[in-house]
Design a protein that fits this description.
The protein has 21 helices and no strands. By secondary structure, it is mostly helical.
């Protein structure tokens, strides 16, 4: 199998992650003006409601499949057997999710007004399962899924403007949303035949697979509950205005977080493959590169977003949401903690089969987060919610790091990592100076934002090169060699 470039994969997956979040941001201003308030309410409720059943259908299979399947990817026979077993389990969990979904629609009469929209969103369960994106992650085929995603997003935007024209077209909007997200997954299933022979099988070895899958699933449920609890508790203790303000801050934060996370998550199948084959030295080397890259990416992203919080809110949401500036500035610090936590969890705990510790850490953090919300929200409303999120992310980072200390401890204490952190702090001073000068010198909102981003990147990169940061110098050499065509 041809070895994929982690750098190219990181760029492609970052782009795909950004597209998945930017699509609703691009379409929302249009549909919010076309659709009625009631229509948008039905759409949002139905989407959220189906997400819980999507979680049941997924069952933690994707994460487990990447971890275990990566070590079989060089043998078509072994990966075919493994993939077929996992796919069959996933089909069974999807059927269970559909049965529970349909029963809920029959039992709960207050859902009857939402039936049509819920059933449309329910298509996601089937298409997500047959899409087997975990198989593409195992083989690091990010180019295929990224190009496919871009094409379907473009088609979906065109369909949106063609079909959503009246206040009652929310069902069309729901269908287009499903098409944009998972409509192409049926192509994935047939294209997957080029990697392995995936099919339904009678012998699933479910006793072997089920325990780790359920532990990972429990972690996913815990994460979903504690992430969703912020907005839920805020709505219960405050009002819709507070939820709206906080929602915009979270959406902006999520875009930046997914961009960075997308650059890092592509290493998971590579790390899973190396640890599965007990190539510890190579595993440690790749893990160190990931941590060092994050050390020079996380802090400047957080500083840049803090400095441009007002501009970003004005561009994405408008003046009505300016009260969310402080919330965005607070929650932005989660960028650093959440991505380190992701590395410790997805790149260490899951590959080395410590998912039980990851579950324990998530549950502890979730309980603390809920408690903090009940304390902070009455005091500081949406700003209190943002603060509780930052504390929770720091806590889960610490717990995951402690659980993985035998792998990440020596790396975090190494001279190279410590120097990258110090270099990043110095480089961020340059970002602050650039943004402050442009706030005074440029009156145009769009121009000021673009110049701030571009010049901050240039300034930060120049400082790292001047300080001879090893990670920056390696990236610079790669860029120079690519330009020269080597």
């Amino acid at each position: 199998m041809k070895k994929k470039s982690l750098g190219i994969n990181a760029l492609l997956n970052g782009l795909r992650s950004a597209l998945n979040l930017i699509f609703p941001l691009v379409t929302f201003p249009y549909v919010s003006r076309i659709l009625s308030v009631d229509g948008m309410g039905i759409y949002n409720f139905s989407n959220t409601y189906v997400n819980y059943f999507t979680l049941i259908a997924g069952l933690g299979v994707a994460t487990y499949a990447v971890r275990e399947g990566a070590k079989y990817r060089d043998s078509k026979e072994k990966i075919s057997t493994f993939a077929s077993q996992v796919f069959t389990i996933n089909i069974i969990s999807t059927i269970v999710a559909y049965v529970l979904l349909l029963l809920s629609l029959i039992i709960f009469k207050n859902l009857h007004n939402y039936v049509s929209c819920i059933l449309i969103f329910g298509l996601q369960l089937f298409f997500t399962t047959i899409g087997t994106e975990w198989l593409y992650t195992i083989y690091e085929e990010y180019e295929y899924i990224t190009v496919r995603s871009i094409i379907f997003k473009i088609i979906s935007i065109a369909l949106l403007f063609l079909l959503v024209k009246t206040p009652n077209d929310y069902l069309w909007y729901a269908g287009i949303t499903v098409f944009a997200g998972v409509g192409s997954n049926i192509l994935n299933y047939f294209h997957a035949k080029s990697f392995c022979n995936i099919k339904l099988v009678k012998e699933t070895k479910w006793k072997w697979h089920l325990k780790p899958i359920l532990i990972i699933f429990a972690s996913s449920v815990a994460i979903t509950l504690y992430v969703s609890s912020d907005t839920t508790i805020l709505g219960l203790l405050k009002n819709d205005y507070a939820v709206g303000i906080y929602g915009v801050a979270v959406k902006i934060y999520s875009i930046v977080s997914s961009l960075i996370g997308g650059l890092l998550v592509v290493t998971i199948p590579r790390l899973a493959m190396l640890i599965g084959k007990r190539r510890i030295k190579e595993y440690t080397h790749v893990l160190q590169e990931v941590i060092n890259s994050l050390s020079i990416l996380g802090l400047p992203a957080a500083i840049g977003l803090v400095m441009l919080s007002k501009e970003v809110i004005l561009i994405i949401a408008g003046k009505k949401y300016l009260d969310g500036i402080l919330s965005l500035q607070i929650i932005t610090w989660s960028l650093i903690f959440s991505n380190y936590s992701t590395i410790f969890n997805q790149c260490v705990l899951i590959p080395v089969k410590r998912e039980a510790k990851a579950l324990r850490n998530t549950v502890i953090t979730g309980v603390v987060n809920v408690g903090l919300n009940f304390i902070f929200i009455p005091l500081w409303s949406y700003n209190g919610t943002a603060l509780s999120t930052v504390i929770a992310e720091f806590m889960v980072m610490f717990l995951n790091g402690w659980s993985a200390r035998d792998y990440v401890g020596p790396i975090l204490k190494s001279r190279r990592t410590l120097k990258s952190i110090i270099d990043s702090v110095i480089g961020c001073i340059g970002i602050i100076l650039v943004c402050m000068l442009l706030k005074f010198g440029v009156s145009s909102l769009i121009l000021r934002t673009i110049l701030s981003v571009v010049l901050s990147v240039v300034m930060y990169g120049a400082i790292l090169v001047f300080l001879k940061n090893e990670v920056a110098m390696e990236y610079l050499d790669k860029i120079i060699n690519r330009i020269k065509g080597r």
